[in-house]
Design goal:
Elements lengths: L22 H11 L3 E2 L11 E2 L22 E4 L6 H15 L2 E7 L5 H9 L2 E5 L20 E7 L7 E5 L1 H6 L1
Parallel strand pairs: 1-2, 1-3, 3-4, 5-7
Antiparallel strand pairs: 4-6, 5-6
Length: 175
């Protein structure tokens, strides 16, 4: 394989799981969905008043109202890249078990097993045109993203088949 086919990144290994969602992407989605809980956050980068964290992990705790202090039903998820499959599986399970809406912003890796599994359980997938410029943990903007992104959406106990659409990223950011 020649170098031009290799997906290279200049991101330090220690920072690959710490990308923050840019407000121009999050804000219009928040207007549409009314997020209550940020599933993968720290006190520094949480986009919602309520959030799970490394110390109170969404992978280890229920997302229902009884076992958390979160009395809400709409969750935003931008999972760490290294744990995308785990978080999407958990999101699907929690959305179904607790009748929650979960919106996940992930790489549009349509060739992966986790993507295929998520589409089987999701109600909607929105493929974003262009690439999202995530924010580095240090606060600086990325130099560019090597992959496109999508939104995978679960709507609680809704059993409609998965709808797949395209969304213009620039239009979303201007909403």
């Amino acid at each position: 394989m020649t170098d031009h086919f290799v997906n290279k990144t200049s991101t330090e290994e220690s920072e690959k799981d710490l990308w923050e969602t840019p407000k121009p992407i999050f804000n219009p989605l928040d207007l549409e969905f009314g997020f209550h809980v940020d599933v993968c956050a720290s006190a520094k980068n949480a986009l919602c008043d309520y959030h799970f964290s490394e110390s109170f992990s969404a992978l280890d705790n229920e997302w229902d109202c009884q076992s958390t202090n979160y009395h809400h039903k709409v969750f935003f998820l931008n999972p760490p890249y290294s744990q995308t499959a785990l978080f999407l599986e958990r999101a699907a399970q929690q959305a179904n078990d607790n009748n929650l809406t979960v919106v996940a912003l992930v790489n549009a890796n349509t060739d992966t097993q986790w993507f295929a599994e998520a589409v089987k359980t999701a109600n909607e997938v929105r493929l974003l045109t262009g690439r999202v410029g995530f924010i580095k943990a240090s606060g600086g903007k990325s130099n560019g993203n090597t992959k496109g992104q999508c939104l995978i959406i679960w709507r609680g106990n809704c059993k409609t088949p998965c709808q797949i659409t395209m969304v213009d990223r620039k239009t979303l950011e201007q909403a």
